[in-house]
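Subject — a protein and its fold
Encoding — discrete vocabulary of local shapes:
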Amino acid sequence: MESTEKRFLDSVLAAGGSQVARTLLRLIADLTLARLVLPESHGLFALAWSTVVIAGFVRDLGLPYELVRDPKQPYGTVMLWELISGAFVTALLIAAAPLFGRLDPALPQVLRVLALWVLIEAAAVVPRVYFERQLQVSKLVGPEILRGLTFAVVSISLAVASFGVWSFVLGELVAATVFLLILWSKARGAFSLTADPRLIPGLLKRSSLL
């Protein structure tokens, strides 16, 4: 077993290296897409993206942070919450999409599809937090970089084919799915997924300030 200090140092270095690599990938992708996609499509996606990211915070209600510190390690229970909450928030976004038409007439249609990102990300929360809790952030580097590379390849390819704003939307959805699948392949069998719904109220109470 590696010492806690060694795992902590490795995790810090891995997080820093991953951030640099992902930033470079995103920068290259964004600069390329800026030349291929009309400015109004960038603005439309920005509105939709900010909405689903905020919805993701609402979905979590701080539970991933509570999971990091909870000595019982209730991975299965938090997974149950994430899937139920993720499905609910996704459905709510789809149903409420027409209300966003005041910002841009095309926004509801984009939001209905991009809302799936909230549910895909929900399924990735627990394995990601597991590696962070175990100070094994280095195992997240590969999936994160491949996620950025997937977004770049998919979105640029679609932009070349004149898909406009859907280049961003489908790029994010495919990239999130690839990240999810690789993450679970690495975490398979590493922790118990036994869920106890009775723990959820206590977890939410303790995570309310997180």
